[in-house]
Every structure is written in C-alpha cells, then in structure tokens.
Amino acid sequence: MARILLQPAPKTYHEALMNPLWQFMLHTYAQEGMKEHCLRLQNEQGQDVLLYLWQLWLKQTRQSLPESQALAPYLHWRDTVIVPLRQVRMSVRKDQEPLRAQLLQAELSAEQVGAQLLYQLSS
Prior knowledge:
The protein is built from 6 helices and no strands. By secondary structure, it is mostly helical.
C-alpha cells in the first residue's frame, strides 16, 4: 500500500507550482542522458515530455492514470501556450540573445504551470 504524505496547503501560487511532480521532473531531467532522451522524444517523435515524465512519476508513486478526458485542461494549456512559445523560440536564431533566453524562460514557466495541472489530476 502506498503511503500518503499530507503536506500543508501552499500559501502562494509560486509554492503551488513547486509541487512534488515538478521537483521529480527537474530531478529526472537532470539525470545523465535524460535531457537528450527527452529532446529526442519531443523533436523526433513528437512526444509530450511533460506527459512522459508525469507517467514516470505516476508509476514511481504507484498511482494510476486518470481518465483521458481529465487531461483536457492540460492539453488546452499545452496547445495554446507551451507549443506556441516553443515554436516562437525555435524560430529565433541562436545568436539573437537575450530574446531567445527570455523565450526559453517563458516556455519553462509555461511547462511548470502545465506540470501543476497534471499534478492536480494525480493528487
């Protein structure tokens, strides 16, 4: 039986974004070879890296996938915010700094919000 750890409710929006799923994603992505693996999944196979990491987290925490329709808020956020930011960032030349770095930061912030949406489905 999986243990459930009760945590105090977050006091701020920023605290809510720093949830256990996001921490897991950051830790996992930082593992040797994982960044390259995730980017290959995303860029060559069109996979959603947040969904991939979320599924790994669900497996590790012994949780089941929710019904597919429950993903609608996340998928809407991904399609209307994350993907367009990524497309804009990818269209900016690498020598156009600091714009490219700012777009990357915006994309990462949008992914963090996406991770919060996924976390809400699993908690």
